[in-house]
């Protein structure tokens, strides 16, 4: 179907609106933003895992979590403003196994870790990479391995290994910016080649939109976020190159609080029963899945011995 939108400026505005609709299933999807065929996963409580929950958490009956949408498919809002996404589904399932109600709340990203440390929330669930530096202050219940993945318009010829002269969109302060495109730009300059231009955005959605409408040659983002954008782009974006720099994602909790052990036991239950696989399948996440629960990238059963 061909449409006429008048002036070039109006045509670009129309393209941006259409692209936003494609990428923002949270406002157009008839299922309220969840993928087709999505169903809630709320397993029964497991008594021996319920008994592992720290008394102060058990007493209030909730597992509280801070999150910072939009970061699809991990967390974003549906058309009614409810928090949804892969991490929200995993958090709810873990809470159910632990005999708790799941209570997520939207927060500024920079405030989540301090809130966990202060005890005002139980966990940070917002695409946190489990790093050695962060482990000094927090325990991480791992749930997925993810790396950096590029995407571009079909037929663009973009090669992440040869990025000099490209315009690449990223979410500001993510590893895609700090560890991928900016170091690559430095290498281009050092070799006397054309610099790489970095377009930094506040959200991964806006970075993907820039690549979708041609403002950027490519998108660099965490692999599940890139895959999600490509899946929702109606064929206007495709993955290019291989995923690289894989690292574990984790739910951040107070260090040595005992909550990590309870959550990891619940995660192991989800893995053993197939519910973990089911949740990730519903969000079309096919790589980086765990075979066993881990705390700080160590197998849960070894960490608790």
TrEMBL record:
Coiled coil: none annotated. This is Glutamine-binding periplasmic protein. The keyword Signal applies. Pfam families: SBP_bac_3 (PF00497). InterPro entries: SBP_3_CS, Solute-binding_3/MltF_N. GO terms for cellular component: cell envelope. Residues 62-287 form the Solute-binding protein family 3/N-terminal domain. It is found in: Cell envelope. Belongs to the bacterial solute-binding protein 3 family.
């Amino acid at each position: 179907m061909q449409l006429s939108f008048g002036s070039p400026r109006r045509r670009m505005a129309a393209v941006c609106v259409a692209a936003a609709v494609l990428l923002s299933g949270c406002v157009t999807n008839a299922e309220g933003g969840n993928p087709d065929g999505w169903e809630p996963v709320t397993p029964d409580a497991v008594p021996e895992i319920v008994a592992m929950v720290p008394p102060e958490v058990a007493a209030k009956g909730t597992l509280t979590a801070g999150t910072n949408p939009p970061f699809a498919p991990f967390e974003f809002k549906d058309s009614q403003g409810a928090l949804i996404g892969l991490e929200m589904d995993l958090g709810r399932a873990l809470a159910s196994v632990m005999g708790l109600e799941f209570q997520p709340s939207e927060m500024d990203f920079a405030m989540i870790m301090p809130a966990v440390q202060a005890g005002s929330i139980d966990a940070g669930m917002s695409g946190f990479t489990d790093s050695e530096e962060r482990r000094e202050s927090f325990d991480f219940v791992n749930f997925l391995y993810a790396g950096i993945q590029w995407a571009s318009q079909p037929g663009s010829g973009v090669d992440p290994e040869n990025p000099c002269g490209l315009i690449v969109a990223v979410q500001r302060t993510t590893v895609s910016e700090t560890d991928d495109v900016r170091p690559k730009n430095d290498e281009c300059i050092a070799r006397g080649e054309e610099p790489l231009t970095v377009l930094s955005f506040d959200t991964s959605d806006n970075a993907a939109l820039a690549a979708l409408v041609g403002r950027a040659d490519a998108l660099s983002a965490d692999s599940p976020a890139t895959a999600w954008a490509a899946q929702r782009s109606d064929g206007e974006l495709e993955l290019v190159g291989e995923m690289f720099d894989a690292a574990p994602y984790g739910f951040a909790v107070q260090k040595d609080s005992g909550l990590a052990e309870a959550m990891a036991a619940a995660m192991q239950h989800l893995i053993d029963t197939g519910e973990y696989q089911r949740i990730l399948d519903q969000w079309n996440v096919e790589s980086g899945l765990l075979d066993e629960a881990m705390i700080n990238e160590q197998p849960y059963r070894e960490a608790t011995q």
